[in-house]
Write a structure and sequence with these properties.
InterPro entries: AH/BAR_dom_sf, BAR_4, PH-like_dom_sf, PH_domain, SLM1/RGC1-like_PH, Slm1_PH. Keywords: Phosphoprotein. This is PH domain-containing protein. The chain has helices at residues 30-66, 68-73, 91-104, 110-173, 183-237, 242-256, 262-270, 373-379, 392-405, 422-425, 444-450, 452-460, 462-465, and strands at 20-21, 288-289, 302-309, 316-323, 328-332, 346-349, 354-359, 362-367, 383-388, 408-409. By secondary structure, the chain is an alpha+beta fold. It folds into two domains: 27-277, Substrate Binding Domain Of Dnak, Chain:A, Domain 2 (Up-down Bundle); 300-414 and 438-470, Pleckstrin-homology domain (PH domain)/Phosphotyrosine-binding domain (PTB) (PH-domain like, Roll). Strands 6-5-4-3-9-8-7-10 form an eight-stranded mixed sheet. A two-stranded parallel sheet has the order 1-2. The longest helix is centred in the first third of the chain and has 64 residues, at 110-173. The radius of gyration is 39 Å and the shape is rod-shaped. The two termini are 49 Å apart.
C-alpha cells in the first residue's frame, strides 16, 4: 500500500491543470480511508449515547449512588475527536454538557429505567446499525473502484516502460526492430491503456463525489436521529423531580441546538485539501503527457487509407496504412486508438520487400507478413500485395516513400484490367501486345547476386516501363490534401 501523502499534494489533478502526468502519485484509497474514519467517529459517538442510556437505566435502580457509573460512560474524550468541532455548539460540546449535568443527577426510579430500556435505547441501537451498514457500503463500493484504478495504472505504467525501452533500442540500433517492438505500435498501445485508466479514474472519482455528497445528508440524518432520541429521553425523565428534569432538559437542549450542517461544514473546512472538488474538470487523454510521446520513432512517414486487393475475392478493401521510421508498412482496420487495442493486421518490413512500378493509382509490393512474431515469420510465405490509392498523386507519394525504404525496386507494372470491345476481339493480339503479367520477383534475388549491375539497371527502368500517365515524379512526393503532406 502506498504511503499517504499530504492533503495538498494528493489531489493536484483536481485543480484543473492543463498537462497531467499519465501516472499520478496519488493514493486512490485516501478519500475512502477518510470517510471510513469519519464513520468510525460517528459510530463511537452513537455508541457513547447507547452506553449512556443503558447506564442511566441501571442507575435508576440504585438511585443516586449508582448514577456515578453513568458519568463514567462519557468521561473519556470522543474517539477520533479530531473529526468534531471543539467549539461550542457542536457534538463535542453536547457531550461536555452531558458530563456536567450527569454529575448533578442523584436519584432515579425503576419505572424510568424500564422506559429507557424499552423505548429510548433502541433508537440509538438502530442508528448504530445504520452507521455500520454505511461503512460496509463504503468499503464495497468506493473500495473496489480504487482497486480497479490501481490495476489500470499498473498496466499503463508497464506499457510506458516498454515504450521507453524500445525507443532506446531504436536509437541504439538505428531503427532495426521487430514489428511488435515498433515504438509507433507501442505508443498506440499506451494510448489504449491510458484511455482505460482514465475511464476507471473518472468513474472512481464520480463514485467518490456521490459518496461525498451523500455523507452530508447521512450526517444530517444521524444528528436528527440523535436529537429525536434525546427528545424521547427527556419525556421519560420528565416525571422525576424538577432537579433531574432540569438537568436532562439542559442536555437535550444542547443536542437540539446543534445545526444539521454544523459538523459537516467544519469537516469540509478542515479537510479542504483532501476532499474532492466537484467543480474541478475531469481528466482527458488530450491533456496527459508521458515519456517519449513525441519521439521521432513514433511519427509516421506517411499515413492514410489505401485499398488492397484481396487474395480470394479479388476485390479491393479499404484499410488504414502507415509507413513508420522503423521501415515497416503496417495495416490497421482504423486509425482509432481507443475502440480496441491497435494491433497491426499486416506488417511488411520494407527492406526485405520488392516494390514494383507505380501505374496510375496502383502499385505492388512483394514480401512477408511479419506481424505474427519470430515463430510466425519463420513459416510465413512471401505474397504479392496489390495496392490502389485514391488518386494518382497519392499513389505516387506512397510509392516514392515505400521505394526509399524498400530493399529492391522492380520495373514490373501492376496488374490492370483492360476492357475489350467486339471490334478489338476480331484481331488476336500478338504475345508482345498482351497486358504485362503481375510482378514476377522469383528470380530477381538470384539475378541480384549474380550481377549487381542488373539490379541497378532495374531500379533505373521504372520510368521507361511505366505508362506516361502514371509515371511518378523524380522529386519529393506531393500530398493530395492541401496543407497536410503525407495524409490521405
Amino acid at each position: 500500500m502506498a504511503t499517504p501523502t499530504s492533503p495538498t499534494a494528493s489531489r493536484t489533478y483536481t485543480n484543473g491543470s492543463v498537462d497531467d502526468e499519465a501516472i499520478t502519485g496519488e493514493d486512490t484509497n485516501e478519500v475512502t480511508k477518510l470517510f471510513h474514519e469519519r464513520l468510525q467517529a460517528w459510530k463511537h459517538a452513537v455508541g457513547y449515547l447507547e452506553d449512556y442510556i443503558s447506564a442511566t437505566e441501571k442507575t435508576n435502580h440504585a438511585h443516586g449512588k449508582e448514577y456515578e457509573k453513568v458519568l463514567k460512560t462519557v468521561s473519556h474524550p470522543l474517539k477520533e475527536g479530531e473529526h468534531f468541532d471543539q467549539s461550542l455548539g457542536g457534538i463535542a460540546g453536547v457531550f461536555e454538557n452531558i458530563r456536567s449535568n450527569t454529575q448533578g443527577i442523584s436519584n432515579a426510579h425503576y419505572e424510568t429505567a424500564k422506559q429507557l430500556k424499552g423505548s429510548i435505547l433502541p433508537i440509538f441501537e438502530r442508528l448504530h446499525t445504520e452507521i455500520k451498514n454505511k461503512t460496509k457500503e463504503l468499503l464495497k463500493g468506493a473500495g473496489k473502484g480504487s482497486k480497479a484504478v490501481d490495476k489500470a495504472r499498473n498496466l499503463t505504467q508497464k506499457h510506458i516502460e516498454l515504450l521507453g525501452q524500445r525507443t532506446a533500442t531504436f536509437d541504439s540500433t538505428g531503427g532495426k526492430l521487430s514489428a511488435a517492438d515498433d515504438p509507433y505500435v507501442l505508443q498506440r498501445g499506451v494510448m489504449h491503456r491510458l484511455n482505460k485508466q482514465i475511464q476507471e479514474e473518472n468513474n472512481n472519482r464520480q463514485d467518490l463525489i456521490s459518496v461525498q455528497n451523500a455523507f452530508a445528508q447521512f450526517e444530517a440524518h444521524v444528528i436528527q436521529t440523535i436529537q429525536h432520541g434525546m427528545g424521547q429521553f427527556m419525556q421519560v425523565v420528565s416525571t422525576q423531580c424538577e432537579q433531574t428534569k432540569s438537568m436532562y432538559g439542559d442536555m437535550v437542549g444542547k443536542a437540539q441546538a446543534v445545526p444539521l450542517d454544523f459538523e459537516w461544514n467544519g469537516f469540509i473546512k478542515r479537510n479542504t485539501g483532501v476532499l474532492i472538488d466537484p467543480s474541478a474538470p475531469a481528466r482527458t487523454v488530450s491533456n496527459v503527457h508521458f515519456p517519449n510521446q513525441n519521439h521521432r520513432a513514433t511519427q509516421p512517414l506517411i499515413a492514410g487509407s489505401l485499398e488492397r486487393k484481396g487474395k480470394i475475392m479479388r476485390s479491393y478493401d479499404t484499410s488504414y496504412y502507415v509507413v513508420t521510421p522503423s521501415k515497416y508498412l503496417h495495416e490497421f482496420k482504423t486509425d482509432d486508438d481507443f475502440a480496441k487495442d491497435p494491433v497491426p493486421e499486416l506488417s511488411l518490413f520494407l527492406p526485405d520487400c520488392i516494390v514494383g512500378a507505380c501505374v496510375g493509382q496502383k502499385f505492388n509490393i512483394k514480401g512477408k507478413d511479419v506481424s505474427k512474431g519470430k515463430v510466425g515469420n519463420t513459416f510465413s510465405m512471401s505474397h504479392e500485395l496489390q495496392f490502389k490509392a485514391h488518386t494518382p498523386q497519392a499513389a505516387s507519394q506512397w510509392w516514392e516513400i515505400v521505394r526509399q525504404a524498400a530493399g529492391q525496386v522492380s520495373g514490373e507494372a501492376p496488374e490492370t484490367s483492360t476492357p475489350t470491345s467486339p471490334v478489338a476481339s476480331k484481331t488476336s493480339p500478338t504475345p508482345s501486345e498482351k497486358q504485362p503479367a503481375p510482378l514476377q520477383t522469383q528470380d530477381i534475388e538470384d539475378k541480384k547476386e549474380a550481377s549487381p549491375t542488373t539490379s541497378s539497371a532495374a531500379r533505373a527502368t521504372p520510368s521507361s516501363a511505366e505508362p506516361a500517365s502514371g509515371a511518378p515524379s523524380s522529386g519529393a512526393p506531393t500530398s493530395a490534401v492541401e496543407g497536410e503532406p503525407g495524409k490521405y
